[in-house]
Amino acid sequence: MSIAIGPYIIDQPVILAPMAGVTDRPFRQLCRELGAGLVVSEMVTSDTRLWNSRKSRLRLDHAGETAPISVQIAGGDPEMMAEAARENVRRGAQIIDINMGCPAKKVCKKAAGSALLRDEKLVADILEAVVQSVSVPVTLKIRTGWCPDSRNGVAVARMAEDIGISALAVHGRTRACGYHGQAEFDTIAEIVREVKIPVFANGDITSAERAREVLDYTGAAAVMIGRAAQGRPWIFREIAHYLATGERLPEPSLDEVREILLAHLGELHRFYGELMGVRIARKHVGWYLKTLAGSESFRKTFFQLDSAEAQHASVHEWFERRITRGAQAA
């Protein structure tokens, strides 16, 4: 079933969550190609004075991306958030996403991210300022509350809908929980019952079957996938296929994983340049290799490589050896 966010129709109920240091442009484009209905950029600070750093410039680069381009902003000052929203729209954003879900201490210390959930008046001021400042749809990402004794996600969701938020993503933990324990979906189910806007369920959804269970339990319009996509970007097509047919897709072959990884590696090197690209590629390749048994020693070797050419060649050779061994064993 398709989902409307303003004028945009999302045709797959599986969405890539914004993750700082992960969902850069190469990764977003890859996830779209592999079945994500919508991808959301890495969080950008609302302080436009800091946008001249190389890191911010790269986060603000959406060249060649498939519409709709959704950009997440974070901050605790309504006027600065409104200005950041306007400036992102001027640079091509088609959806503005507000971060009130990040539990990181660095973000929360600045009264941004999920720290805002303690102050519902400030939440309302920020939402109103951003919604009124742009003509594009505004979405919101929250947690279920500040702490287990203060799960105010339902109240915030109602307020967000009243103010004009177009869709809401909810992570099934509180700010105090960080990423510990298990995500709970009762609060998300209650939010779905209370609002008419699309709700996206997020937290601990690591398989197609789990996605089906969460959607059935909560009634949410879509699932939002975060950490489970690291090293497994094909999870989006697996979930989309399972939700549509009830059938599990086979795991990608080693040959396909190699092709996906090499293409991703090349895009990282092109996007960041060799020096920075080589460094950033290490963590992405590390995530892929973690999903493959017997890759520990190669992972250590790969992390020592310091050129794009060496990285590309070593990945190609390692997979070639694995594929050849598999063919001989068969």
UniProtKB/TrEMBL annotation:
EC number of this enzyme: 1.3.1.-
Record-annotated active site: 102
Record flagged with keyword Oxidoreductase: yes
UniProt enzyme class: oxidoreductase
SUPFAM superfamilies referenced in this protein's UniProt entry, alphabetically: FMN-linked oxidoreductases (SSF51395)
GO terms for MF: flavin adenine dinucleotide binding; FMN binding; tRNA binding; tRNA dihydrouridine synthase activity
Keywords for the protein's UniProt record, in alphabetical order: Flavoprotein, FMN, NADP, Nucleotide-binding, Oxidoreductase, RNA-binding, tRNA processing, tRNA-binding
Residues reported to bind FMN: 18-20, 72, 141, 171, 202-204, 226-227
Protein name, per record: tRNA-dihydrouridine synthase B
